[in-house]
Each structure stands twice: as C-alpha cells, then as structure tokens.
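Annotators were shown the component list below and the corresponding predicted structure, then asked to write short factual statements about the assembly.
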Amino acid sequence: MASKSVARYLTVNGQQVALDPEGYLVDLSDWSHAVAQALAVDEGLLLTDEHWEVIEVLRNFYQRFESAPPMRPLVKFVGQQLGADKGRSIYLMTLFPGSPAKRAARLAGLPKPANCL
Amino acid sequence: MGAVSMNESFDLNQAADTQVLVILRHGPQGGSLLREGLDAALVAAAFGRNVSLVFMGEGVMALCRGQDVDALGQKATAATLEMLQMYDITDVRVEAAAMTSMGLSEDDLILPVLPLPAKALATVIAAAPLVLTF
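Structure shown to annotators:
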C-alpha cells in the first residue's frame, strides 16, 4: 500500500509532486507521462519505448484488477499483452534492473506491490 | 485470522511445489475474512505455491456477479477474484449444496468453478497438505 507520508517533492513542470519514503507517488492521480519521465531521471533510468509499453501494461493491470502486481502476475500479464517473448522475468529485469515489479510500479504511478520479494 | 491445520508432519521448507488449499466460508459483506483469505491465497501464489480455492457455505456469495464497490467505499473483492488467473489460481471448487441453498447456478458466478458434493469436498480437503480456513 502507498504510504501517505511525504518524504520529499519532485519538481515536474513547476509542479511539486509528493513522494513517499520509497519514492512512490503519495497521490496516484498526480501521474502523467512527464511525472514518469521525471521519476526515471531521478533514479537514473532512461525510458525507451520498451519501458513505456511495460508502464502502460502496468497501468492497465491496475485499472482492471485494482492492485499492483508482484513479479509472477506481472510476468504473466506482460506476456499476454505484449507477447510471450516479453513475458519473461529476465526481460523485465533488463528494463528495470533491481526489483522490476517495484520499480516499474513506481514509474507507472501505482502503489507499491504487496507481497513482493 | 483463519485457522491453520496441517495434515501429518508438514515441512514448510520442502513445500515449494506443494498445494495450498484455501477455504473461504464468508461473503464479501459483514467482515474481512473473505479479503484476508484471498490475500493469503495471493501471497502463497506470489511465492510460487500451487494454490486451490474452495468456496463453502456463505462463501459462495463472493462469486456472485454484479457486486461493485460496497457502501463503505471499500475495494470490491470481485476485481481480486478476476485477478486470480494472473496468479495461476484456476482450481476453484464450490460446495454444490451451498450453491443450491442460495439458489445460484454456475451462470451467476464470475469465475468458472467446479461444484462438488460434500463427500468429494471432504476427500479434496483431506488430500491437501496445507489447509487455510477463512
């Protein structure tokens, strides 16, 4: 669940966007492409088309199931939406190194996935 | 929380592929046990367990179509039920007598289920190495 406490602010197009201690948006409705871009720059990630399509898939997942997916369902859903060659954890690890489910959820403006390793 | 019963000697460390059976006996209204049971099922599946669900008694009401966000503005459990397939939880059994007593047919339910008579359910439950009851 997204924490409501504000740890810091990110400035996007002159707007102050509140982030929780783990870097997730405090107000999920703050999300926009510009915010995602700023979040990525903030953590040193360059967003390519491949990143954006995964971010879009994550937002679809959240809209449909009202929950942010941990790795296993994320891999399955990406596979269904973008094709089996992309529905693999190694692919998502390459795009979002570290913890792909948490990182991609953060950039997609979702709450932190529950039950995530 | 629900009760945990372990059949025979159960070693969690050797259970990576073993089945977890979650029994759901409460509907979406009137308490949080349905949500807690589904959360337990999702956690087990997220950690790679093979999860099966059994809806018994009032629990079958969770599967009825057309239930949206409730009056308290809580998240509906229907979205969670639809998400189960993404966790590869597709083995969903239902107590047939409970469906009959509530006047429900399979067409009224949001998930494909396998209705089972009480005797067959007892066999399923006895065969599961780990049973969580909510």
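Statements collected:
1. Residues 27 and 100 of chain B are 16 Å apart (CA to CA).
2. Strands of chain B lie at 3-6, 19-24, 50-55, 91-95, 114-116, 130-133.
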